[in-house]
Amino acid sequence: MMNPETSSNTGERWPVALNGQHERRRPIGDAPGAFAGIKAIGISSIRDTLSSRRHSKDFAYARGDYLRSRVLVVGMIFAILTPLWIAIDAAVLPKSTLAYTTPGRFFLMAGLVATIMLARRSRARVTRIRIAAGLLIALPAAFYALVLITLPPGEAVHLVGYSFIPFLLVATLSIFPFTLAESALAALTLLGLHILSQHVAGTWMTPQGWEQVWLLAALLVVALTANYFHLGLLLRLYREATHDSLTGLLNRGALAHNLQQLEGVLDQVPMSLLMLDMDHFKKINDSHGHSVGDQVLRQFASILRQQVRKSDFAARYGGEEFVAVLMGSTPQDAMEVAQRIRRQAETSHVYNHDGKKVPFTVSIGVAGFRAGETFDDVARRADDRLYQAKQQRRNCVVGE
């Protein structure tokens, strides 16, 4: 098979796992004190929850699935309750007002159904899922705004229960793992909607109006705080559940999820796969100890992260074996990347317990994705190329 050497560092052999830009974790000993450690964690957490720019591609897919499930549930609840509220409108609103609210509710229900259908058909489509989540907040807000704008003067006082729509949508924000930037945008929109309703009702800049604005602002702060902790907890749990603790690359549990996400684009963009194996790793362990072997694995994982792009995936395959999936790269492009990785590894080293340099090298097999192939097919061909590299002279790259 792929690796003629075995190592006590390997543990269980894992399937190929994919990883995007990796969330870095600071070692405990790096901080000069407990306060500095807490401060670093806080700053990192705020950066991670402020926007999705720092999120790895694999986490973006995971958050997309998380958002999608909530869009489907909340969307169905809204779609069911929207027509039922017509009966309440008929009981408390005058006929002149019903002429505006009833058609609006049917249009709202149609929009919610369309949003649910969009979410159902958006598996692994992160952008479309985010649009669906935004529509779930925007549609009720737009419905309320249109009703307010189209109502004749003086009719707004009859809108029993409608003034609670901004407050309901603010509460809905806390259900979703939105970033702070996304939540802030929605919050400003809802605050503007509430101010519009006060202008129509004639309560703007009155004590009653200020009281309602203050209450809505307080709820918005609570919702943004909930988003911060919600997304932060999701990030932390995701990292712990999917990332290898030694190298920071994805673990076995994340493999199946990432493969499923990429199955739909195999025939749409060129992709290549690298299989990488550390040379004579067992000898390093036996000669210098397992702690030095761990240093080698961490150092090589760092090299791999430096050489792959943000759109690429890199992962620990198992033990001293690694894998990288290069998005939009032909086999020729992948050969160049593999050579850069090999050369950087060849010139790198770690130090043993005596302060002596411990060099290391890597052998790499390269294979490109072909039409109709699965990941297993490509991994098998890359595995064969890696075996050839091991049989030849090691510290080399073998491609197709």
Number of helices: 12
Shape: elongated
Number of domains: 2
Give the strand tally: 7
Radius of gyration: 28 Å
Secondary-structure content class? alpha+beta
Oligomerization state: single chain
Query: Which residues form runs of ≥5 with pLDDT under 50?
Result: 1-8, 10-43
Largest sheet: 5 strands, mixed
State the helicity in percent bands. Answer: 55-70%
Along the chain, the helix and strand elements come as HHHHHHHHEHHEEHEEEHE
**Rounded mean pLDDT score:** 82
Distance between the termini: 18 Å
Q: What percent of residues are in strands?
A: 5-15%
Q: In what order do the strands lie side by side in the largest sheet?
A: 2-3-1-6-7
Question: What does it look like?
Answer:
The structure is a single chain. The protein is α+β, with helices and mostly antiparallel strands and 400 residues long. The chain is 61% helix and 9% strand. It is built from twelve helices and seven strands. The protein has a five-stranded mixed beta sheet. Strands 4-5 form a two-stranded antiparallel ribbon. Strand 2 and strand 3 (321-327) form a beta hairpin. The longest helix has 36 residues, at 57-92. The protein is elongated and about 85 Å long. Mean pLDDT is 82; it is low at 1-8 and 10-43. Pfam families: GGDEF. InterPro entries: Diguanylate_Cyclase (IPR050469), GGDEF_dom (IPR000160), Nucleotide_cyclase (IPR029787), Rev_trsase/Diguanyl_cyclase (IPR043128). This is diguanylate cyclase.
